[in-house]
């Protein structure tokens, strides 16, 4: 396994040192099949690590970058908080709204964490079906999501997975997240229940106060389902982590590939 990871880390720096794949293969003695096999194995490890990280409690919720916030339909509620702060009664309502908002956010993130484990089989399927040509394009930094871009793509492998798995992951995630949004995941409430309570409270208490303050009627949030929003943001977070790992390997492969770099490039670094 260590050898495979070393191979994977090493192939990400090939474009820096070699002008062609043939030169690389001739120097290392590795065949195209060997390289692609190493790439597939490493991608499996990387995607498994990302799914495992997000499947843990607070995997999404405690991440400043990946935490899933309220959907756009909740913007009127968020915009009302500053206005409510202008009156004594409004301040009380604001505090209750903030508490209920956090309940919804926590519930959404718990649902995403609960569903994260179901991404791994989809990733594995896409990786298993990777062709030699696709593997070599990833190796060379080809941007799979934008074929017109000629620049080296430091997240070529991640973009490959995104392109190949986004639809399958969405179809897999949607029912799982929708089910999770309906479950009490140890919070004493489900995310959908928290959302329904938030909208009901806003309509019953916040909305009348807002109208009396400036005679302006903010739009009332529609009764929506959270599934589509949660699915989109959960997958964005998943691919973000995979891309992060890929960038680390490309930026500093030496921490994983010391042995093979010494073997192949020893003469380059001789003093």
- Kindly state the mean pLDDT as a whole number? 77
**What is the string of helix and strand elements?**
HHHHHHHHHHHH
Query: What is the approximate shape?
Result: elongated
Number of helices: 12
Strand content: under 5%
Low-confidence stretches: 1-20, 23-28, 256-271
Computed structural class = mainly alpha
How many structural units, i.e. domains? 1
* C-alpha Rg (nearest Å): 24 Å
Percent helix among the residues?
55-70%
| Biggest beta-sheet profile | none
**Terminal-residue CA separation:** 32 Å
- The number of E-state strands comes to 0
Describe the model.
The chain is an all-alpha fold. It has helices spanning 2-11, 14-17, 21-28, 32-55, 75-84, 88-115, 120-128, 132-139, 156-181, 191-214, 227-251, 254-265. 37% of the residues are buried.
Would you spell out the secondary-structure blueprint of this structure?
Blueprint lengths: L1 H10 L2 H4 L3 H8 L3 H24 L19 H10 L3 H28 L4 H9 L3 H8 L16 H26 L9 H24 L12 H25 L2 H12 L6
Helix pairs in contact: 1-4, 1-12, 4-7, 4-8, 4-11, 5-6, 5-10, 6-9, 6-10, 7-9, 9-11
Would you kindly provide a brief summary of this structure?
The chain has 271 residues and is an all-alpha fold.
